[in-house]
Amino acid sequence: MAEARYRKRMSRSDPRLYVPASDTAFVEGQTLSLPPGQAHYLGNVMRQGVGSVVRVFNERDGEWSAEIAALKKDRGSVLLQHRERSPMATEGVELLFAPLKRDATELVIRMGTELGVTRFQPVVTERTNTHRLNLERLAVIATEAAEQCERLDVPEILPPESLRVVLAEWPEDRPLFAALERRPGEEASVEAAALLIGPEGGFSETEVEMLKRHGAVYALSLGPLVLRAETAVCAGLARLSAGAEGSV
Known about the structure:
Elements: H1 2-9, E1 16-18, E2 31-34, H2 36-45, E3 53-58, E4 62-72, E5 75-85, E6 94-97, H3 102-114, E7 119-124, H4 135-149, E8 156-157, E9 161-162, H5 163-169, E10 176-179, E11 194-197, H6 205-213, E12 217-220, H7 229-242
Parallel strand pairs: 1-3, 6-7, 6-11, 7-8, 7-9, 10-11, 10-12
Antiparallel strand pairs: 2-5, 3-4, 4-5
């Protein structure tokens, strides 16, 4: 019922902005200053003006309706009106993935955010073809995706780390499902904590053996076809989501 009332009150055309939690919790009547990028977005991209309705949210304060109180060039502020949704953490898995070329990596971040990934951990494998990531740019993409898909939090994006190091530190009580090409998946009654997607060309045989020896790792089959890495991300997340209430 609360969700239905929310959707009735809020228009899908209302701009939606992620405003990170500060020292002060959101309250009715509070004025929030907007970062320059958001002020520019409202005024020059969305063509909004003083009095227009927007939505602001974060993982601590939930989602609020607000009214633009001031907007000039790269400066602006909004007046908080009502809380429309209480804080609610996204239910999903952590995604471990081998960095890809820029456009493909950005697509992984965008799609993963929309599909409920709680945290991204880039992992460097033997066949990883790039080691450079613009983490600031990827954080912007994750934020934009969260604003678009109506989740209330933005997933964290960690710096790249070698697969070997990540596995060495991975707890055995956190089930990690690894997409292994042309290998059968395992029947498992546990709920996945994370998904691992390898690079274009797949994992090396050494890495496959390392994964098979780890007590937390389960093989996940994505079918008989060889998928592009970014496609495998979507397929894997959908597979885990569909199997969350039963065996994967």
